[in-house]
Design a protein that fits this description.
111 residues, 0% strand, flat, DUF1677_pln
Length: 111
């Protein structure tokens, strides 16, 4: 089994699959996955529409609050939490021990 890999065919396959050259069998698998995602997206949209028709028309303020809650929930899942920085934190001001320790260390290096 062979395929004619002309430059046009290769460029068409690569443009369709994010720059990757994949075989026909893999392309079918990828297309099936894309179709599943499309079906999931339609299902999620239909669910939102039915929720709106059930809740939004009767209680618009409640529906709006629910929508804001969902937006915040999605955003909190995608936000990257900053890692703790080693520099830039506040130093303790109630103790002079760090300054004394530094001074002693500097003296030890000089001697």
């Amino acid at each position: 089994m062979s395929e004619e890999c002309t430059p046009e065919y290769i460029s068409r396959v690569r443009s369709k699959f994010s720059g990757k050259l994949i075989c026909g069998l893999c392309s079918e698998a990828v297309e099936q996955e894309m179709e599943k995602r499309r079906e999931e997206a339609v299902k999620a949209h239909m669910s939102a529409c039915s929720r709106f028709n059930r809740l939004g028309r009767s209680y618009p303020a409640l529906f709006q609050a629910e929508a804001v809650k969902e937006i915040l929930k999605k955003r909190s899942k995608t936000m990257v939490r900053p890692t703790k920085s080693e520099k830039g934190g506040l130093a303790r001001s109630s103790s002079c021990m760090p300054a004394l320790a530094k001074e002693l260390k500097d003296r030890a290096l000089v001697n």
